[in-house]
Design a protein that fits this description.
This protein is an all-alpha fold. The two termini are 33 Å apart. It has 21 helices and no strands. The longest helix is centred in the C-terminal third of the chain and has 49 residues.
């Protein structure tokens, strides 16, 4: 407990530092696991228990939960009303997004290993964390391969090459990653090659809106067809998954009710009830809850298949639609913060549970898997709770110095600028191909969501990294089969860990990125 508390405080502070200096929040799970490994080497009997891979898994769960919770779910949302000049709305926003963060993590815990979010899904950062912990525990060739991957990842990141994207291509869903890489390349080269500004035409936003709505309908269809015959489930993990599928509908209803309640609380706490007529107030509550829920699902699906989640961009899309609906600026600020808060904690919980699922034997023993998963939930919730006072204590010091998440400035600028009818037309037109691609790919590939994710992110180098990684992966698997697959997972873990460690140290050390 003391170790988890210390790592939670550390993770929360680092998350705030990274988001305000780098503009993004790298996954710090590997750092938490390594901290537990280092503690385990202390030559005292009381520290010997930290050699357990399961305790190390709890350490990485707490660290990453605190990082994403403090930065993405708490600091970013409260920066929006602060920049908007309404400091009186900061506390209502903070209370609302704190509850949303807790609900976020709990919902993924309930939906993990179901048809919507199966344990067999890619969840690349989760595989990276698990393989790092296993390599550290086993030593020998596995540890050497992991160390090689970390070194290559750090060196590649030094030269500005996205090594995490390369590593993810070794273990992610090929269809999803192929569309992600294509999106990266189209976004990066459409302007210099064809003179088309994809972002300026709001093509990515429209495609994500269309793909997201279709993805939601696909989720509903999966729920209706999730009645698995227990007689066909020969393995413990299949039996466990069948039982969870039966409850996924209840979980989604719980989430919908929870988000409705939180949106009502935000409307009351921020005084929107006094500014809006009853129909507009009801419209705000319903749309805010729907936007938060859809944002969570899209971010979770993208994270599961590719390791990337477009939380910032999808929140901007929900904001643009809110502007088109006609909500006043104060309501838009609260709407945007609430939407942005959902998703990151949800996705990170999936990464952590994937790591635990691998370390516990991939569901071979259902009781052990359920109990271990419950312990991870406790570790994550502890981290979320610790992140709240940390952010509450330090946010004013950061904001008064101008250290705010860069994307919060984008949201506020969008609120102040409004949306023209040309933008609305573009969103509607490009929603159609986004919906069609998502429909053709099906829920197992999420091609529309991932293509839109790539289009929303201006990172053509990541596109090349993904394509190169897919080609290398295909060649190596043909040569080595399953034995090569395991080595690739360890190497991918090293590449992702090296990239994360470089981002971490380049931000916190003197002379690092600002």
């Amino acid at each position: 407990m003391l170790l988890l508390l210390a790592l939670s405080v550390f993770g929360a502070i680092i998350g705030v530092q990274l988001l305000t200096t780098l503009g993004v929040t790298p996954n710090t799970a590997i750092i938490g696991a390594m901290a537990a490994m280092i503690v385990a080497r202390v030559p005292l009997q009381s520290f010997a228990r930290f050699r357990s891979v399961h305790i190390q898994n709890l350490a990485q769960s707490a660290t990453s939960s605190a990082t994403f919770g403090a930065a993405n779910s708490l600091l970013l949302p409260i920066a929006i009303p602060w920049l908007f000049g309404r400091q009186d709305l900061v506390m209502p926003m903070f209370i609302g997004v704190s509850l949303a963060m807790l609900l976020d993590g709990y919902l993924l815990y309930r939906m993990f290993n179901t048809r919507i979010f199966p344990a067999e899904g890619a969840w690349p950062p989760g595989i990276a964390a698990a393989e790092s912990i296993k390599a550290g525990d086993q030593g020998g060739q596995q540890a050497a391969l992991l160390g090689t991957g970390i070194a290559i990842g750090a060196v590649g990141s030094w030269f500005k090459f996205p090594m995490a994207a390369l590593g993810t291509a070794f273990i992610g869903n090929i269809w999803a990653l192929g569309m992600l890489g294509l999106g990266f390349l189209l976004r990066g080269y459409s302007q210099p090659l064809f003179g088309i500004d994809i972002n300026g035409l709001y093509i990515p936003h429209g495609m994500m809106a269309g793909a997201g709505v279709v993805a939601l309908f696909q989720i509903v269809k999966l729920i209706r067809t999730s009645k698995t015959d227990p007689a066909d489930a020969a393995q413990d993990d299949e039996m466990l998954s069948a039982g969870q599928n039966a409850h996924v509908g209840k979980t989604l209803r719980l989430g919908a009710i929870g988000f409705l309640a939180i949106s009502m609380l935000i409307a009351l706490g921020s005084g929107l009830y006094a500014q809006l007529s009853l129909p507009w107030l009801l419209a705000f509550v319903v749309y805010a809850a729907f936007a938060a829920f859809l944002h969570e699902m899209i971010v979770g699906l993208a994270a599961m298949h590719s390791g990337w989640f477009p939380a910032f961009a999808v929140a901007l899309i929900t904001l643009l639609i809110g502007i088109l609906i006609g909500f006043p600026p104060e309501a838009l600020a609260m709407l945007c913060g609430f939407s942005a808060a959902t998703g990151p904690a949800f996705a990170d919980m999936g990464y952590d549970l994937k790591a635990g699922w691998i370390l516990r034997g991939k569901g071979e023993h259902s009781w052990f898997e359920l109990e271990g998963r419950r312990q991870q939930l406790f570790a994550a919730m502890l981290a979320f709770v610790v992140a709240m006072p940390v952010v509450l204590f330090i946010f004013k010091g950061y904001f008064t110095q101008g250290l705010v998440p860069p994307v919060a400035k984008v949201y506020v600028a969008a609120i102040n600028a409004g949306v023209s009818m040309d933008i609305a037309k573009s969103l509607l037109i490009w929603a159609i191909p986004g919906a069609l691609i998502q429909l053709i790919g099906g829920p197992g590939r999420q091609m529309g969501v991932l293509l839109a994710t790539g289009l929303l992110i201006n990172n053509p180098l990541a596109g090349w990294a993904v394509i190169i990684g897919i080609v290398i992966r295909s060649v190596l698997l043909r040569m080595g089969g399953d034995a090569m697959r395991n080595k690739m997972e360890v190497l991918a873990a090293g590449l992702i860990a090296g990239d994360a460690l470089f981002s971490f140290f380049s931000s916190v050390l003197p002379g690092g990125k600002k």
